[in-house]
Design goal:
globular, about 170 residues, single chain, about 15% strand, binds zinc ion, five-stranded mixed sheet, alpha/beta, 9 helices
């Protein structure tokens, strides 16, 4: 179940994803919110602008949260992370470390590096996953907008398939 408030934060995550695509990188955005509905931090994918394969939106949001993460861990606050795409295994690990209590994402990532659901299903770190409320694809309209961003990304020159193609074309010529 999500609320109208959740939807606002999911829209913000989607806006970050749109900005990322404008910056010619993976269209993924993330918003970290506390239990009083304050936005603690935002993040968007920076893999290509920063030339850093670990600069994922969720990790960026957690990094940008700075000391707020430690305050939340110490005082057992309930932070929610909203992402436009299912977190990958690395970001899922970051979420576990940050002791985020609730994770909501717009679009599953079964074909890509979506990892949260798989790791949860694998029953590893089970006690830690059991403390996290997981909400996948709660809003069809926003889900479809993220899906459209993913399709646009496939045509971007920085998409790895297109980068490889450019190399092989160059090699033939
Ligand atoms: Zn990730």
């Amino acid at each position: 179940m999500i609320t109208e408030r959740d939807k606002v934060f999911l829209q913000m995550a989607l806006e970050e994803a749109e900005l990322a695509l404008e910056e010619n990188t993976y269209p993924v955005g993330a918003i970290l919110v506390d239990d009083q509905f304050n936005v603690i931090a935002k993040g968007r994918n920076r893999v290509h602008p920063a030339q850093d394969t670990t600069a994922h939106a969720e990790i960026e949001a957690i990094r940008n949260a700075g000391e707020a993460i430690f305050d939340a861990k110490i005082h057992n606050k309930s932070f929610t992370l909203y992402s436009s795409l299912e977190p990958c295994p690395m970001c899922t690990g970051g979420i576990l470390f940050a002791k985020i209590k609730r994770v909501v994402w717009l679009l599953n990532d079964d074909l890509g590096f979506g990892g949260f659901q798989k790791m949860k299903d694998a029953a590893i770190f089970e006690a830690k996953f059991n403390r996290i409320e997981m909400i996948a694809e709660p809003d069809e309209e926003l889900r479809n907008r993220q899906l459209e961003l993913m399709h646009q990304w496939e045509n971007n020159a920085n998409h790895v398939k297109n980068l490889r193609k450019a190399v092989s074309v160059g090699g033939d010529g």
